Amino acid sequence: MLFELIRLELLKSFRSTAFAKSVMVAIFLGFLAIMLLGYLFMAGIFLNRILQEIAEGQDTIIVLNSGLIFFFLVEFMYRYFLQKLPVIELESLLHLPISKKKIIHMLLGRSFFSPLSIVALILFAPFALTEISTQYGMSGAISWLGTVVFISWTLHWFMLWFKQRFEDSLIGVIIVFIVLLLGGGSTYMGWFNLGEMVSPFFTFAMSSFIPMVIMLVLCLVGYYLAFSYYLNNAYLEDLAKEEEVRFINQSVGFFSRFGEAGELANLEWKLIIRHKKSRTFLMLSAFFLLYGTIFYDNPAYQSGPMQNIFIFVGIFITGIFTIQYGQLFLSWNSGYFDFFLSRKDGIKNLVKGKYLLLLSISLLCFLLSIPYVYFGWKFLLIHFATFLFNAGIMIHLIIYLAIWKPKPMDLSKGAMFNYEGVGAAQFLMIIPMMVAPYLIYLPFALIFNFYAGLAALGTIGVVGILFFNQLAAINVNRVLKNRHEISSSFRQEL
């Protein structure tokens, strides 16, 4: 039966109309994966030397044991964003006369065969065989390496359950935030050192097989947890009901006050929370709210020319979603762009609706960044000035640049390694977006002082907000002028 399922998967791939394209993409991703794994293997070979440079004079084994927990925190994060769920394949197989348990075992096993599953092995195996085996023998090296690998595999099975259970809910976002805060933030802020707390466990693993056995059991428990959840929810009607309930009543009420543009903003918001790529942008915006902790508490940036970098940080924190989502301004609507062309004021309301949505999320990012006042009132002024500039100027600039030769995008496809809608314009537009605020800020900051630059930045933003209709008309007219070229490019087969 296992071979039958494999045969069906191969037939599905061969019969696909995009088979040639899929093969080329698979070859490219395979080459990329081999290259990255090769870099990791080289890093593993030189890991001892790297640790000696970082912690000069300290025992590299102790240093690594203290830092392993942070590696797994990073693994938790990249698995959350990169690890693919087998849900779509599950829906395509449930109607077949095959045991549901066998289908789920096959899908879970298939998900395990991924480059992510051997990252820990490739990175730490050279260190275990060359350094740990020297001091603790080969049995100590195997026990330590087995413990590390089983933790990584436990995260794999846990993430399959976690993403399916919480990915589309606020609870999932809160859990990820707590893990990030308690993991990296606690050590950075000096609350407690999580690495030193966990280090004895890995030290014990070098002299005993008990930690490896514990992690093996947890790995099996993680597999059973994922298997049980998929088995209990593997019904087509349950999946359809879950999809229906998950996104129902997700409208933003105050958008309705802005007429048809507000209704389009509401529809755009529903698109964001339903599509993995846009939802990833939204979640990354939440994570990048912590970006300021890298700079605001660092004495090197507190005075002199180096404090000018705070403008970039403020633009990034309050406008990261605008920068990411706005780069694909029309690509999100490529499938029904002609609908807006056929309606009276359709393009005008589309542009205004997107502006309203981007402005709302930027405002939310600013409000969530208010706690940075803990580092000083200066940082609240920075965020306020950069928010005003984002609202009055930056959103219009991003929309203007994104209208240049937009690419079509298929919203039914995945989020990671999906470059549909991305062209040369999306890579080049980052330059004027980062330069624009400094063109306003620097002259006043250099002639007068830092706060004069902030005042100029905020004032230009307020002027842009007051002249919203005129600035929006520029983008509307540009879309209308190039509507036939844009519409033709969107009709091309993806």
From TrEMBL:
Superkingdom: Bacteria
Residue ranges crossing the lipid bilayer per the database entry: 21-41, 61-82, 103-129, 141-162, 169-189, 201-226, 280-297, 309-334, 355-374, 380-403, 424-444, 450-474
Keywords: Membrane, Transmembrane, Transmembrane helix
InterPro entries: DUF5687 (IPR043742)
Pfam families referenced in this protein's UniProt entry, alphabetically: DUF5687
The protein's name: ABC-2 type transport system permease protein
Species: Algoriphagus antarcticus
Organism ancestry: Bacteria, Pseudomonadati, Bacteroidota, Cytophagia, Cytophagales
